[in-house]
Specification:
alpha/beta, 6 strands, globular
Length: about 220
């Protein structure tokens, strides 16, 4: 049940989407990979550690894993093995979240630009969006390689807005993670959370204009079908 069933966004000129867990249904796949790779390295992944990694940058994930498992945790090997496993899984198919094609088609039909702001590296982001057939839907894609400070810093969202030539306040940001919500809110954007694996805390809920069940809900709210 959406927490804002009668939600209507303020007027907007663009929508900037997070990628993993928001556009691409990859977080469950990544969860399996994280647990498998950890086990092969001799570490038992814990749910709270995995959830802490959702939406986090590589730097933040590294710090989290070292804090959880100690300085001997081989992050570089873990990261490389996760990338290889994800690449293998995504070569089979890149699943997308409910409502993605519908909202992107709606934006295109109305001439409203869309962008991506992701913590993923460029090859990963471009590869996955391309495999999902979504690349052409976006005016610009901001990745970890385009910014100095990843989420929860606002730089990814501010960079995307700048490339679109839009004021941050004229943009809707769509996120599934706490780090992403913090980044979008700090950028001064109208922030919508569509939770995937992580539910919003009271603090995160306060930073959102709305918490919705799916991108279908956002499309209906924004365009009142």
């Amino acid at each position: 049940m959406s927490s804002h069933p009668a939600f209507r966004p303020a007027p907007f000129e663009a929508i900037i989407f997070d990628m993993d867990g928001t556009l691409l249904d990859t977080e469950m796949v990544f969860r399996d990979v994280v647990y498998d790779v950890s086990a092969t390295l001799g570490f038992e992944m814990r749910e709270e550690v995995h959830l802490g990694m959702v939406g986090a940058s590589h730097e933040a994930s590294n710090a989290l894993l070292v804090e959880a498992y100690g300085l001997t945790f081989p992050y570089a090997i873990f990261d490389e093995n996760c990338r290889k496993a994800m690449k293998q899984r995504m070569a089979e198919a890149v699943p997308i979240k409910a409502g993605v094609r519908e909202i992107l088609n709606e934006l295109k039909a109305r001439g409203i630009p869309a962008a991506v702001a992701t913590s993923s590296r460029s090859p990963h982001a471009i590869g996955h969006l391309g495999a999902a057939g979504l690349l052409d839907a976006f005016e610009t894609i901001v990745t970890r390689d385009d910014v100095t400070h990843p989420k929860p810093h606002p730089e990814p969202y501010l960079t995307a807005a700048g490339r679109l030539g839009k004021a941050p306040a004229a943009c809707i940001a769509v996120e599934d993670s706490h780090a992403g919500v913090r980044a979008a809110h700090a950028a001064g954007m109208q922030t919508i959370m569509v939770p995937d694996l992580v539910r919003p805390s009271d603090e995160i809920r306060r930073l959102c204009a709305a918490v919705l069940d799916s991108l279908h809900d956002l499309r209906h709210a924004a365009f009142r079908h």
